C-alpha cells in the first residue's frame, strides 16, 4: 500500500516468531507434566478446578442440572467402576469408539477415522499415559484451534449412570482413551452438551489442523471412488452423512438418516467380468449396520475368492460394513474430507514447499459486517484480502476436486487450455460452539473471490474505492452455509484477486480465521494492513488566533494564564462554529474530552496560550474534516464515513485498530458525533507522537510486538 510523503509507520511483529511456534500451548495455563509431578509428590489424585466434575460440565438445557437425563449421574474415576482400567488396550482401533447418549456422532465418526493413522492419533492422544506407573488422575490431549495447537488437561472423573458411562465408550469396556478425549473436547468448548450436533469436518480439522471440504453428492458424481481411494492413501480423514431426515431414524436396510459415518476403506473386486467398487463405512454407535448388498451376510461374498473374503469380511455387529459405490450414492448426500495441512504433511514431494497464509479477523456490526450481497451498499465494508497467484499448475486436474490434496491424481494437460492455479480457501468461525449455552449458533457464512484488473490494483487507496469495487467481476464463490468450516478449491488464472469473507446477514458478529493454501507460489495480504500517520497530522502549521479569541482565552485563564479543563470547555462552546445541521446550536465538547485534550496538547492539568494555539489549529482542521464527511449534515458519521475521515486527517489504520476505534467511539445508534470524533483523533495524535519520539527526526518506522502495541494503543 502506498504511503506517500513523510510518515511515521508502526509495524507489528509477532513476539512468538521463531523456533517452536508449533509447540502446543497449555490450555488455561495448565501444564500436564507439572500437575502430574505435583500430584505424585503430594500423594493425591488431580481434580480439575477449571472443569469441575458436576452439573455445569454436563450442560445447560437438555443436560442441565434439573433435566431428567442427568438424574442419578455420578462422577467416577475408571478404577471405581471398572477392574483393571487401561488407557489403551494393545492398539487403538476404529472399534474403540462407540457412541453413548450424547448426540455427537460427528465427533465420534471423526475419532474413529483418526485411529486409522497412528502418526496422527499419537499427536492428539500423546503416548505414555496410563493407570499404572505415574498415575495421578490426570491426562492430556492436543487439539488444533484456529491456527495453533493447545494441550488440554483433564482429570479422569467421568459421568456414570447406573454403573455405565453416559457417553462414549470403547468396545473393550476397560479402555478409556476415547471417553477422556471426549471430556477434553467438552472442556475446550464449555460442556458436554455443546457437542450436540455438528459436522465431521469440524472435528477432523481440530484433530489435524487440516482443511475440511464438503463434496455434495449426486448419482453421477465423477471420479468419486478415485477421490476417496487417494484421499485415504494420503491419510485424509473422510466421513459421510446419510440422506437427511427430521432427526435420526433407522431405515429398513439398516442405515440411519441424518447420521454421520466414517469411511475407513475402499476396495475394487471382480465379480465375473464386472468390477465392483466397494466402500467400507462405520457407524459410530458400534452397531446398526447396512443390510443390503455386500453387507456382512450378503451372499455376494460367496462368489469371491476365499482369501478376499478373509481379508475384507468381518461378520460381527461392530458397526462396520461394506457397501457398493452406487448404493452409497443413493443413500448418502455429502462426503466430508479433511486434507492434511502443510504442517502435518511436511515438504511437498516436488520439493517446492507448501505455501500457506493465515489471517484472523472479526465481523463487527456497524463496522465491517456488510452481508453477502455484492450489490448491497454495505457489502464492501466486509474484510478484504488481496490474493496474487503467480504460477499456474503444471498440469490440469480431472474429477470434482481439481488441484492438490484429496484427489491426488493428475492428468496430462490438454493443448490450448488456459493455464490456471489451484488455491484452497478455508473460512472458519472461531469460538461459536462455546457460545451455544447463550443461545448462539453458527452463522451462515462464505466468501466471494473477485478478479482485480491490473489498472485497479491501487483501488483501496482511493476515496472512490466502493464505487470501483462494485465493478469487479466475481471469479468464484463458496457455498454460504451454517457450518463452522466453509472451504472451496478455486481454479483461477494467474493474476490478482480480492477475497471477501462475509456472513449472510448484515450486522452478524463473529470471529473468523481465513486460510489460503497452494502448492504453487502466491502472495496474500489483508487490505489496509498498514498503520501510519502523515507527520502533518501530528504537527499543524501555526495559525494566529483571532483577536477576540485571544481575548477570550485571557479572560477565562485569569492570572494563571492557563486554562483548566472546565475553562477550556467553556471557551470551546463559544468559539467553535455551530454544526451545519443546526446552525444556531454550538458544538458541544464534554468535560472528559477537554481533559483528554489537555493531556494531549497541554502540560499537566492545564493549557497555556502557546499550546492552545496548537490545539486550536488541530480543531479547525478536524472540524473541516468532520463537516466534509458528514455528507447528510446529520451531525454524525457512520463507521464507513469515520474511516474515510480518519484517512483524510492523515491516519492510515489497519482493520484491527479501526475496529477498536469504531467500537470505542460510536454511540448506541452506531454513530459518531463531533465530540467523539475529536476524542478519537486526539488519541491517535498522542499515539503516533509517542511512537515518533523513538525515531530519528520523528520519521520512519517503529516495530512493536502485539503486546507492546496493545499497551500503547489502549483507549481509556
Protein topology:
Layout (H helix, E strand, L loop, with lengths): L6 E7 L11 E2 L5 H11 L12 H4 L14 E4 L1 H4 L23 H10 L3 H7 L13 E8 L2 E8 L2 E4 L2 E2 L11 H13 L10 H9 L2 E6 L7 H10 L3 E6 L6 E2 L5 E2 L2 E12 L2 E9 L23 H7 L7 E5 H7 E8 L2 H4 L9 E9 L21 E5 L31 E10 L14 E8 L12 H5 L3 E5 L7 E8 L2 E9 L6 E9 L3 E5 L4 E4 H4 L8 H11 L7 H11 L15 H11 L7 H21 L6 E2 L1 H10 L2 E2 L2 H11 L6 E2 H19 L7 E6 H7 L4
Parallel strand pairs: 1-29, 2-5
Antiparallel strand pairs: 1-25, 3-6, 4-5, 6-7, 8-15, 9-12, 9-15, 10-11, 12-13, 13-14, 16-23, 17-22, 17-24, 18-21, 18-23, 19-20, 19-22, 25-27, 26-28
Based on Cα principal axes, name the global outline: elongated
CATH class of the largest domain: Mainly Alpha
State the low-pLDDT regions, or none: 15-21, 347-353, 396-415
Backbone structural class: alpha+beta
Largest sheet: 6 strands, antiparallel
What's the number of domains? Answer: 4
Measured between the Cα atoms of the first and last residue, the distance is: 30 Å
Question: What is the mean predicted local confidence, pLDDT?
Answer: 83
Count helical runs: 21
Arrangement of strands in the largest sheet: 8-15-9-12-13-14
Overall strand count: 29
Strand content: 15-25%
Amino acid at each position: 500500500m502506498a504511503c506517500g510523503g513523510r510518515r511515521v509507520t508502526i509495524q507489528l511483529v509477532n513476539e512468538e516468531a521463531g523456533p517452536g511456534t508449533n509447540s502446543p500451548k497449555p490450555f488455561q495455563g495448565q501444564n500436564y507434566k507439572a500437575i502430574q509431578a505435583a500430584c505424585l509428590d503430594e500423594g493425591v489424585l488431580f481434580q480439575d478446578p477449571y472443569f469441575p466434575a458436576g452439573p455445569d460440565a454436563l450442560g445447560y438445557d437438555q443436560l442441565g442440572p434439573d433435566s431428567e437425563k442427568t438424574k442419578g449421574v455420578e462422577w467416577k474415576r475408571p478404577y471405581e467402576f471398572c477392574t483393571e482400567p487401561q488407557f489403551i488396550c494393545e492398539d487403538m482401533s476404529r472399534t474403540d469408539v462407540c457412541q453413548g447418549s450424547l448426540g455427537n456422532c460427528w465427533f465420534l465418526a471423526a475419532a474413529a477415522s483418526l485411529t486409522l493413522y497412528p502418526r496422527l492419533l499419537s499427536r492428539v492422544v500423546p503416548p505414555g499415559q496410563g493407570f499404572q506407573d505415574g498415575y495421578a488422575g490426570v491426562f492430556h490431549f492436543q487439539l488444533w484451534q484456529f491456527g495453533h495447537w493447545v494441550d488440554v488437561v483433564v482429570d479422569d472423573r467421568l459421568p456414570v449412570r447406573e454403573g455405565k458411562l453416559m457417553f462414549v465408550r470403547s468396545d473393550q469396556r476397560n479402555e478409556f482413551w476415547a471417553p477422556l478425549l471426549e471430556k477434553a473436547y467438552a472442556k475446550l468448548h464449555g460442556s458436554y452438551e455443546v457437542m450436540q450436533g455438528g459436522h465431521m469436518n469440524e472435528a477432523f480439522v481440530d484433530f489435524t489442523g487440516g482443511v475440511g471440504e464438503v463434496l455434495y453428492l449426486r448419482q453421477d458424481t465423477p471420479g468419486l471412488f478415485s477421490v476417496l481411494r487417494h484421499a485415504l492413501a494420503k491419510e485424509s480423514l473422510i466421513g459421510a452423512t446419510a440422506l437427511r431426515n427430521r432427526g435420526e431414524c433407522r431405515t429398513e436396510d439398516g442405515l440411519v438418516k441424518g447420521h454421520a459415518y466414517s469411511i475407513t476403506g475402499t476396495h475394487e473386486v471382480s465379480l465375473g467380468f464386472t468390477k465392483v467398487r466397494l466402500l467400507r463405512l462405520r457407524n459410530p454407535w458400534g452397531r446398526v449396520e447396512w443390510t443390503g448388498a455386500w453387507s456382512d451376510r450378503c451372499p455376494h461374498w460367496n462368489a469371491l475368492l476365499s482369501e478376499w473374503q478373509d481379508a475384507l469380511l468381518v461378520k460381527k455387529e461392530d458397526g462396520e460394513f461394506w457397501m457398493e459405490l452406487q448404493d452409497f450414492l443413493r443413500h448418502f448426500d455429502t462426503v466430508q474430507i479433511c486434507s492434511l495441512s502443510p504442517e502435518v504433511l511436511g515438504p511437498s514431494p516436488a520439493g517446492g514447499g507448501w505455501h500457506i497464509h493465515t489471517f484472523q479477523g472479526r465481523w463487527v456490526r456497524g463496522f465491517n459486517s456488510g452481508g453477502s450481497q455484492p450489490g448491497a451498499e454495505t457489502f464492501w465494508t466486509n474484510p478484504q484480502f488481496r490474493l496474487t497467484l503467480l504460477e499456474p499448475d503444471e498440469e490440469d486436474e480431472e474429477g470434482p476436486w481439481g488441484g492438490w490434496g484429496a484427489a491426488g491424481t493428475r492428468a496430462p494437460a490438454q493443448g490450448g487450455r488456459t493455464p490456471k492455479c489451484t488455491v484452497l480457501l478455508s473460512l472458519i468461525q472461531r469460538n461459536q460452539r462455546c457460545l451455544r449455552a447463550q443461545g448462539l449458533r453458527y452463522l451462515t457464512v462464505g466468501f466471494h473471490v473477485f478478479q482485480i484488473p491490473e489498472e485497479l490494483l491501487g483501488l483501496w487507496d482511493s476515496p472512490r474505492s466502493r464505487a470501483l469495487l462494485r465493478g469487479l467481476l466475481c471469479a468464484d464463490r463458496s457455498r454460504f452455509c451454517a457450518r463452522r468450516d466453509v472451504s472451496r478449491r478455486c481454479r483461477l488464472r494467474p493474476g490478482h484477486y480480492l477475497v471477501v469473507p462475509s456472513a449472510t446477514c448484515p450486522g452478524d458478529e463473529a470471529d473468523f480465521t481465513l486460510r489460503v493454501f497452494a502448492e504453487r507460489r502466491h502472495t496474500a495480504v489483508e487490505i489496509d494492513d498498514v498503520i501510519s500517520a502523515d507527520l502533518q497530522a501530528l504537527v499543524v502549521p501555526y495559525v494566529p488566533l483571532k483577536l477576540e479569541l485571544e481575548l477570550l482565552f485571557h479572560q477565562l485563564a485569569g492570572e494563571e494564564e492557563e486554562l483548566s479543563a472546565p475553562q477550556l470547555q467553556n471557551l470551546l462552546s463559544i468559539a467553535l462554529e455551530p454544526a451545519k445541521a443546526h446552525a444556531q446550536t454550538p458544538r458541544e465538547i464534554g468535560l472528559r474530552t477537554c481533559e483528554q485534550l489537555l493531556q494531549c496538547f497541554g502540560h499537566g492539568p492545564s493549557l497555556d496560550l502557546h499550546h492552545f494555539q496548537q490545539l486550536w489549529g488541530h480543531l479547525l482542521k478536524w472540524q473541516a474534516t468532520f463537516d466534509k464527511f458528514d455528507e447528510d449534515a446529520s451531525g454524525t458519521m457512520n463507521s464507513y464515513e469515520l474511516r474515510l475521515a480518519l484517512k483524510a486527517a492523515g491516519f492510515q489504520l489497519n482493520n484491527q485498530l479501526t475496529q477498536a476505534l469504531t467500537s470505542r467511539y460510536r454511540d448506541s445508534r452506531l454513530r459518531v458525533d463531533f465530540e467523539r470524533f475529536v476524542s478519537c483523533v486526539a488519541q491517535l495524535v498522542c499515539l503516533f507522537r509517542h511512537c515518533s519520539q523513538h525515531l530519528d527526526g520523528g520519521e520512519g518506522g517503529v516495530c512493536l510486538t502485539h503486546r507492546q502495541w496493545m499497551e500503547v494503543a489502549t483507549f481509556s
